[in-house]
Amino acid sequence: MPKEKGTDIPINGVDQDDVKQEEENCASAENADELSLSEEELTALCREHVCPECDVMQKAEQERLRALADTENVKKRLLREAEEMKRYAGDSILGDLLPVLDNLDLALAHADHADEACKNFVMGVDMTRKIFLDTLKNHGLESVEAVPGTEFNPEFHEAVGMASEDDLDDNAVAQIVQAGYVLKGRLLRPAKVMVNKKS
To answer: Which GO terms describe its cellular component (predicted)?
Structure first.
């Protein structure tokens, strides 16, 4: 069968139309393979070949940086909480020891009426109290300033009653009922005081 003018001429006995047809068949087969990829496979291919300026890449980078920042914030918070736990670990034990200190103070307050025979005993109680208080101070315990005449401070004082002293100002501490204590800057127990109100 003669070829028409302008058509491809067989080269080495291979018809060029057949070659083109074969290439088209291969291309359509590749397209069919691409279309049969799952959504996950397509997303993975996209991530491999995406350019840095692409919105998908920028969004993924932002999410990665946000996750890193969140992780860093959690780490810092856990370190801060661990430090705080170490710093105030003894507050419950020291809080439980405060009544012992209160009882020693109470014993010394009533020692004024003791006779000569008890003076050595009172001196022993006073020395015990000082050693005990020094030991607690070594662990960060300090007494709240509550002296008669100082102004009442609700952050460190707890009012348990009213007094009427003419020589003191209104809202001044008139009497200390129970000493208060601070542990490393944090209030462990407020000082219980009587507050002055002039009539």
So the answer is: cytosol
